[in-house]
Amino acid sequence: MGLVAFLFCHCDTVGSIRQVRMVTQQMGLLEKDTESLDVEEETPNTRQDWTRSLSYAAHCALTVVKPSFLSRKSDKKNGKLRRTAYLDGLRGFAAFLVYWHHHCLWAHEAMESEKRLQNGWGYEGQYYFATLPGIRVFVNGGHFAVATFFVLSGYVLSTKPLALINAGEYTKLGDNVASALFRRWLRLYLPILATTFMMVCLWHIFGIWGNFIPEPNFRAGIWKWYIDLKSYTFIFRTGGEPWIDYNPHTWSIPVEFKGSIVIYTAVMAFSRCTRRARFWGELALVYYFMYIADGAHFAMFMAGMMIADFDMMATANELPSWLTNLSFLEQPVSYFMLFMAFVLGSVPSFSAEIQVLRETPGWYAASWIVPQAVFDYKWFFLFFAAICMILSSGRIPWLKRFFETRFCLYLCRISYMLYLVHGPILWTLGDRLYAAVGWTREQHAGTIPHWVNRMPLPRIGPYALEFSFFVPHIILLPFTLLVAEIATAVIDNPSLRFSAWLYSKFEARPEEDRRNAENRA
After folding, report:
1. pLDDT of residue 73
2. Is residue 475 included in any domain, yes or no?
3. Number of domains in the chain
4. Among 16, 257, 260, 336, which has the highest number of CB atoms less than 10 A from its own CB?
5. How confident is the model over 197-211, as pLDDT tens digits?
6. Is residue 48 part of a domain?
7. Distance between CA 442 and CA 446 in Å, rounded?
């Protein structure tokens, strides 16, 4: 986000180069005390030291800035990827779909993008290539991507605990769940605190207009940020918006944390059950969340846990005989699931009213199977779409190879920060580039009038796939990936290390456990 501010400081604020220099000094990009250097008295050794220091600093800066997928380091160890590397790639590609989803809606807002792109093909007589089943996933598949995130999270969070349960390592299971639960809040929320604070600074320090109404002064902005955060980070609250005004895309993170608690609770509750009983318990929770309570998101987490359990059985050759006897159907069934993933993943999402779904060509019959408990029908269909995509991606060779490509795995490594920073970049750099090529919005006349139609381009191509829409991404996509890469290095990874370090400081040592046990006795 600091790079965004630096790029637009001279365009969106009134000031001289001297002011820009002062801002960059505050950002730490320039040496603040350059006047104190006495160059004339510098000795050769000092010059060499400075040369080495500058070379080292430049190397460190390039290491942070250079996208890791361009480095020579491979994701492979001993020539082999991890068994579930394709799931990492799937997560990364899903993060890219979220990026594209929001850009499509934002750029086409003046053309009623919310209604046209998020309704189904043929609704109210509107037929757009971008809304065709399957095509829609790649144009407006953000909700499908989020459902995939939730199922994958259930899979990943439960894999290690389930392995410990199967091995009978119950003491290690307790240690694992305790550590994971302790670190989870910090891992999810610390990056949000950092990125949203930068959004507060955009207007009050750098004068850059974003997707929010700024407070009268910086102090008021900080206070509003604090008020939003204290409500947002309390996951048991009832009412209020589920996001922070400085980044509405953060609505899914409280769901992610609550889903984590569901997984850890289920793991411990079923830890002493037989495998068969555990599997039926997982299935019962899926049914409860989907058909009894309005908890479709948590059904996705539990489905991920079921898939992890199923995969462990398959790896250990412990699947039921009736299932192994059907192995010859694996490929056709996998392709059918992939087909269903694209069809169900294209479910209309503009309105939660079931009547809208019934009026959409091709969805009338499907609308009658939506459970009464599900108040937003799209999550019911996306639940099955995400499951089908995950199950098929590991069983279709060419699809698995695609998700194991270096670029998809790179997207996975930066996926969380890509999710958090793509919105702020869209609302700053993206908004201006779209305005420059002709994708104007009503408020541009009052916010960034000098960017409007600076270089208008023809709108050649199908709706949401126009030439003038693609051109800004020559800048936007590399820049967003670069910022996400840097944010991963300076925000996300340190947050992970900090949470692990903090737990290590709080964790009781074996001798302390023994003394505590003796005291209780």
Report:
1. 55
2. yes
3. 1
4. 260
5. 999 998 888 888 777
6. no
7. 8
